[in-house]
Design a protein that fits this description.
Layout lengths: L1 H19 L15 H11 L3 H16 L36 H10 L1 H8 L2 E6 L2 E7 L1 H5 L3 E4 H7 L1 H7 L10 H9 L4 E5 L9 E6 L6 E2 L2 E6 L4 E9 L7 E3 L2 E6 L4 E8 L5 E11 L4 E8 L4 E4 L2 E4 L5 E10 L4 E10 L5 E10 L4 E10 L7 E10 L5 E10 L5 E10 L2 H9 L4 H17 L4 H14 L6
Parallel strand pairs: 1-5, 4-7, 5-8, 6-9, 7-10, 8-11, 9-12, 10-12, 11-13, 12-14, 12-15, 13-16, 14-17, 15-17, 16-18, 17-19, 18-20, 19-21, 20-22
Antiparallel strand pairs: 1-2, 3-4
C-alpha cells in the first residue's frame, strides 16, 4: 500500500508539472472589469475597422441586457468585473518556434506543443491568454491555397471572408456568453480550405490561460469550400489558482456542398475555470460535420456542439466524453437540426462521475417539417464510480415528420465491484483497475481520435479517475 501511495504522489507531481504550472511573464497593462471603455480599448489596440468595433459595442449592450442562464450549472458566483478581458503578453506573433520569447516558449515546450507539431500536424497555432504568440502552416499546405492563421490577422488580410461568415452562424444575440465573446474576443483560429482540397494532416491549436483572474475569449472560424476536407484539433489547459478563471469561446464551422469538417477538442482546463462555450456548424448539401468533444477539466463546463443540416443529404455527428471528479460539473451534450431531406445524424455521449462530481447530458434532436426521410440516433451512457457521484440526462426531441427514423437509448450504471475485485486478484492496484474499466467504457469514442491524442486522453483520464488526482 505504501508503494501505491508513492505512485499516486508521483502521478500528481507529473500532472501538475505538465499542466498546472504558472509561467511568470511580463504583460502589457490593462484595466480589470468590463465596460464600454474596455471594449473600445481592446478594439483600438488591435487596430480594427469600424464595423468590428460597432459589432463589439452592440454585443456589449446585448450582454448587459440578457440575464444569466436560469438552467444548467450554478453560475451565480461569477462576477464579471473580477476578470481581465485582455491579457497581452509582451510578445509579437512568431512564425518560427525559436522566435517565440523564452518565457512563453517554456510553457508550450513543457506541454509538448512544438514536438507534436513536428510529428503530427500540417499547421499549428499557440495562444497564450489573449494573444496568439505562434502561428505556422506547412509550406506544402500553403501551396494548396489553405489559409490557417489567427482570427485577428484574418480580419486584416481576409476582410471579405470575415464579413461574409463571421458572426453569421452564432450572432451576438444568440446567448449571453456569445454576446460576451463578441464584445471581448481576441485570438482564435481562422481556416479556409479551397474547393476540392483535402488537407493531408490535421491542423492544431493550443489555448493556454496563464494569468490570474483572466478571461480567454478566442473566436474560431473554419470554412471548408465545396468538396474540401479538414481535421482541426484543439487543446486547452490552465494553471490552478485560488480564484476562478473564465473561458467563453465561440466556434463557427461552415461546411459547403460536399465538404467535411472534423473538429476535435481535448479540454483539460484546471479545476478553477468556468468553461462556457458556444459551438455551431452549418452543413450544406452532401456535407458532413463531426464534433469530437472530450471534457476532462474545468470547474464548470457548459458546452453543446450543434450542427444545422441545411442541405439535402447532409450528415453530422457529435461524440462527447465527459469526466467529472470532485467539485466538477460537466454539463455537455449536443444539438442537431435536420433542416433538409435525407439528412442523417448521430449523438453519442459517454460520461463518468466520481465523488461530488456531476455529469449532465443535454441533447436536442430537431426534425423540421421539410426534412423528409431523416434518420437520427442518440445514445448516452453514464458510469458512476462511487455512491456519491451524480448524473443527469435531459434528451429533447422535436419531431415534425412521421417518416423520420429516430432511435434513442440511455444507460446509467455503477462501477462493478466484482470487476474491480477480479482485476485486483490478478495483482492490479485498485486505481489501475478503476482506470481500466473507465478506459474500456470510453474506448469506442477514443478510437476515432488520432493515435497520439487517444493515448494522451487515456493518460489524462487515468490520472483524473485515480485517488491522487480526483
Amino acid at each position: 500500500m505504501a508503494n501505491e501511495g508513492l505512485e499516486e504522489v508521483v502521478e500528481r507531481k507529473e500532472y501538475e508539472e505538465k499542466y498546472g504550472f504558472y509561467q511568470d511573464v511580463l504583460y502589457d497593462e490593462f484595466p480589470k472589469g468590463l465596460s464600454e471603455d474596455v471594449v473600445r480599448k481592446i478594439s483600438g489596440l488591435k487596430g480594427e475597422p469600424g464595423w468590428m468595433l460597432e459589432k463589439r459595442l452592440t454585443a456589449l449592450r446585448i450582454f448587459k441586457s440578457k440575464p444569466m442562464p436560469s438552467w444548467g450549472a450554478d453560475l451565480s458566483s461569477i462576477n464579471f468585473d473580477d476578470y481581465y478581458y485582455y491579457r497581452n503578453p509582451n510578445a509579437t506573433e512568431a512564425n518560427k518556434w525559436e522566435n517565440v520569447p523564452d518565457d512563453i516558449k517554456q510553457t508550450f515546450d513543457k506541454l509538448g506543443v512544438p514536438e507534436a507539431e513536428r510529428k503530427f500536424f500540417g499547421g499549428s497555432e499557440a495562444q497564450f491568454d489573449s494573444s496568439v504568440v505562434y502561428s505556422h502552416v506547412n509550406k506544402e499546405l500553403e501551396k494548396l491555397g489553405i489559409i490557417f492563421t489567427d482570427t485577428d490577422t484574418a480580419l486584416k488580410k481576409y476582410p471579405d471572408l470575415m464579413k461574409k461568415y463571421w458572426g453569421k452562424i452564432i450572432p451576438a444575440n444568440d446567448n449571453k456568453f456569445a454576446a460576451l465573446n463578441t464584445a471581448t474576443w481576441s485570438g482564435g483560429s481562422f481556416v479556409y480550405v479551397p474547393k476540392g482540397v483535402k488537407v493531408p494532416m490535421p491542423l492544431n491549436a493550443y489555448f493556454r490561460i496563464n494569468a490570474k483572474n483572466s478571461g480567454q475569449f478566442e473566436r474560431t472560424l473554419i470554412i471548408a469550400d465545396e468538396g474540401a476536407d479538414v481535421v482541426y484539433i484543439e487543446g486547452c489547459t490552465a494553471p490552478t489558482y485560488a480564484s476562478n478563471a473564465l473561458h467563453a469561446a465561440v466556434v463557427e464551422l461552415v461546411a459547403l456542398e460536399g465538404a467535411h469538417i472534423r473538429y476535435v477538442t481535448i479540454q483539460n482546463w484546471s479545476k478553477n475555470v468556468y468553461n462556457l462555450v458556444t459551438q455551431r456548424a452549418h452543413a450544406a448539401k452532401g456535407a458532413k460535420v463531426d464534433w469530437i468533444d472530450a471534457n476532462i477539466g474545468s470547474k464548470v463546463n457548459m458546452k453543446y456542439p450543434s450542427i444545422m443540416l441545411q442541405g439535402a443529404g447532409a450528415s453530422g455527428e457529435v461524440l462527447s466524453i465527459a469526466i467529472a471528479g470532485d467539485g466538477q460539473v460537466q454539463d455537455s451534450g449536443g444539438k442537431i437540426y435536420h433542416l433538409a431531406p435525407n439528412t442523417t445524424s448521430k449523438i453519442i455521449s459517454k460520461s463518468v462521475s466520481k465523488g461530488s462530481g456531476v455529469t449532465t447530458f443535454r441533447g436536442l434532436m430537431h426534425i423540421a417539417k421539410n426534412a423528409e426521410k431523416s434518420k437520427s440516433h442518440v445514445s448516452c451512457d453514464a458510469l458512476l464510480l462511487d455512491d456519491n457521484a451524480k448524473t443527469n440526462t435531459y434528451p429533447y426531441n422535436q419531431i415534425n415528420r412521421s417518416d423520420a427514423i429516430i432511435s434513442h437509448e440511455a444507460k446509467v450504471g455503477k462501477i462493478n465491484d466484482d470487476q474491480i475485485f477480479y482485476l485486483m486478484s490478478r495483482g492490479i492496484s485498485e486505481d489501475d483497475a478503476v482506470a481500466m474499466i473507465v478506459l474500456g467504457f470510453i474506448d469506442d469514442l477514443a478510437k476515432v481520435l488520432p493515435v497520439e491524442y487517444s493515448l494522451e486522453l487515456k493518460r489524462l483520464i487515468k490520472l483524473d479517475t485515480s485517488k491522487g488526482i480526483g
